[in-house]
From TrEMBL:
It comes from Alloalcanivorax marinus. Residues 8-207 form the N-acetyltransferase domain. This is Bifunctional GNAT family N-acetyltransferase/carbon-nitrogen hydrolase family protein. InterPro entries: Acyl_CoA_acyltransferase, C-N_Hydrolase, C-N_Hydrolase_sf, GNAT_dom, UPF0012_CS. Belongs to the carbon-nitrogen hydrolase superfamily. NIT1/NIT2 family. The keyword Cell wall biogenesis/degradation does not apply. Residues 223-478 form the CN hydrolase domain.
Length: 514
């Protein structure tokens, strides 16, 4: 075959293809019975036409994949090939099945080396995603085992193939296409002498699969983030501050954002109402407004149909002051995340103490975490959240200088890469001349992504103009994260060496979704 003359086409199998299909099966499977009867092939086409795929070259059939739908619970357990199909009957196709079962893939020997089998496997995976099925199952023969059956057990042989010490023409190919060995099948195809009747049950999981009863929240794919880069300005009253906040929430809602995130200490202008207080007294005074602001913003979340990450505000509990970020969902529920790591400035000038709980939150637009400013500079927190399935990390921050800002920015980008998630950072700009220790701010708010083919080349989806009040929008695709976890050019989460190290949360509460 001359490569320059090749004209490949992927399409569905038809009844007219049977003579060519039979010749190909007789050629490939001469040692285990050859071609299936025409009626069996016709039944497959009638029951599940989408699952029967062929590749032709200039009209000549050169590769085929035959597939049915099955019950995952039934065929993820031990079974034989005859439980699926026999010469005269397709036994186990289920129109309501929740998994694909790969009956066969075979390629004309003259076309090996053109990766036609890989094309068919990719087409199967796409069909699995389109049908919203949980997995692809397949029984994989072990034709290379005949050369090792006298010197090693079949489980030893499989282990050697998995470690790439031995090449098996079928198992090696399936492993290279993302399938995992789930179990050993005995007497799978008794007439297969090369495999001694053994086979491996292989599985490829559809990471985009969504069960019909998948939790309390309807699953979203594309989520719109709205980031507020707010200029600090004087506030004459709580009502004045809330009117400023409502303007941003209203604007983000007009653009149908799913989240609005505000900067750390966005309520700080209220300290200017009593400029004669010392710094500790001023923060306690500011904390006296927090519950009122929180409740008003919770109402905004419902009224404007948007989830609000309420920056952060000081909160007094049992005589202690904490730096707290609130999640105000658009269904009316409110949760909180206290800042865990307190900066020397907060501790010395404001007497703020660190919280002891780390939380992850389920929302109608993804599973999220919140780390306030300095907290994002501690990689352990982001990793603990990632291990609980965090998809979006929100980081309200307040920094006075560019070097302080760059610490937050670079660490936020690192968290996006190492934890395979999106990270949105929101800061304030401008100055508050009448407020002690909140004199100036520097910020360039942004939304970061992991760094791989699915995302922008520099890992930055969107960023603001430095030190300018503005709103920032970014659409993030949660499905891309799932693809990254499984099929990225690097897979940071999956490749961790848990045999060598681990990370344990020792806080008072377990790290569970709120």
């Amino acid at each position: 075959m001359a490569e320059e003359s090749t004209r490949l086409r992927l399409r569905q199998l038809t009844g007219d293809d049977y003579p060519a299909l039979a010749r190909l099966m007789d050629m490939v499977y001469h040692d285990i019975g050859g071609a299936w009867p025409e009626e069996t092939v016709a039944t497959l086409i009638r029951l599940f036409p989408e699952g029967q795929m062929v590749i032709e070259d200039n009209g000549n059939l050169v590769a085929t994949a035959l597939t049915i739908k099955v019950s995952y619970d039934r065929f993820s357990n031990p079974h034989r090939y005859e439980d699926l199909i026999t010469d005269d009957k397709v036994r186990s196709h289920s129109r309501k099945g929740d998994a694909l079962y790969g009956l066969d893939v075979f390629v004309d020997p003259e076309y090996r080396g053109y990766r036609l089998g890989r094309r068919l496997y990719e087409a199967r995976k796409e069909l699995c995603r389109e049908e919203n099925l949980r997995a692809i199952l397949a029984g994989g023969r072990l034709p290379g085992y005949k050369d090792y059956a006298d010197t090693m057990s079949v489980t030893e042989y499989i282990a050697e193939v998995e470690s790439r010490a031995i090449y098996d023409p079928i198992l090696t190919f399936q492993l290279s296409n993302g399938f995992d060995v789930k179990r050993l099948l005995k007497k799978y195809l008794p007439e297969d002498e090369s495999s001694r009747g053994y086979a491996t049950l292989l599985e490829w999981d559809n990471i985009l699969y969504q069960p019909d009863d998948d939790g309390d929240w309807p699953r979203r794919s594309v989520v719109r983030l709205g980031v507020v880069q707010r200029r600090m300005r004087a506030a004459r009253s709580v009502e004045d501050l809330l009117s400023q906040v409502e303007f941003f929430v209203d604007s983000l809602s007009d653009y149908r954002a799913d989240f609005a995130v505000l900067p750390e200490f966005f309520s700080a202008p209220l300290m200017g109402l009593k400029p004669d207080l010392n710094s500790v007294e001023a923060v306690r005074y500011l904390a006296s407004f927090t519950e009122e602001i929180r409740d008003a913003m919770a109402d905004m979340a419902v009224s404007y149909n948007i989830n609000i990450i309420g920056g952060s505000m000081p909160l007094e509990e049992d005589g202690r002051i904490y730096n707290v970020a609130y999640l105000m969902r658009r269904d009316g529920s409110v949760e909180e995340q206290k800042k865990i790591h307190i900066t020397p400035h907060e501790r010395k000038d404001w007497a703020i103490q660190g919280g002891n709980d780390l939380r992850i939150f389920d929302t109608d637009a993804g599973r999220i975490g919140i780390l306030i400013c300095y907290d994002v500079e501690f990689p352990e927190l982001g990793r603990l959240l990632a291990e609980q399935g965090m998809e979006i990390l929100f980081v309200p921050f307040w920094t006075d200088t560019k070097n302080g800002y760059l610490r937050v920015r670079h660490c936020a980008q690192a968290r996006a890469i190492e934890n395979e998630c999106y990270v949105a950072i929101s800061g304030s700009v401008g100055n508050l001349p009448r407020v002690d220790n909140v004199d100036i701010q520097y910020a360039q708010s942004a939304v970061f992504s992991p760094s791989d083919f699915y995302f922008p080349h520099d890992g930055t989806i969107s960023e603001s103009v430095p030190n300018t009040e503005m709103l920032l929008f970014a659409d993030v695709d949660l499905e891309k994260l799932k693809l990254l976890h499984s099929e990225g050019s690097v897979t940071n989460l999956r490749d961790r060496r848990k045999d060598l190290y681990n990370l344990v949360w020792r806080g008072r509460k377990a790290l569970d979704a709120e």
